[in-house]
């Protein structure tokens, strides 16, 4: 009998939690599109590459306050972000090809 009472206690707690969840105001979440996220990621990659190029140009022109290690770090960040973008693109193309090869 005590096992049944324990289960009933858990069920009543779950029901109470469900009721309190229903009574809470739910704020509508803004929808974020996949295409929008992909475009934002590409923009960030472009920004990193542009910043790296500008930093390298400033160093080449001999502007004060631009250290070689900062330039190299920025260039490496740009390279890594570009490689990540390429890998994401490859995964997307692979997933698209897999979906297109499915028989309906």
Figure out the total of helices. 3
Main sheet characteristics = none
Give unreliable regions as ranges.
Answer: none
H/E element sequence: HHH
Topology:
Blueprint: H1 2-23, H2 34-60, H3 68-100
3D structure, described in words:
This protein has 104 residues and is mostly helical. The protein has one domain. 79% of the residues lie in helices and 0% in strands. The protein has three helices and no strands. It is elongated and about 80 Å long. One of its GO terms (biological process) is bacterial-type flagellum-dependent cell motility. GO terms for molecular function: cytoskeletal motor activity; structural molecule activity. This is Flagellar hook-basal body complex protein FliE.
Output the keywords.
104 residues, mainly alpha, 3 helices, 79% helix, Flagellar hook-basal body complex protein FliE
TL;DR of this structure?
This protein is an all-alpha fold and 104 residues long.
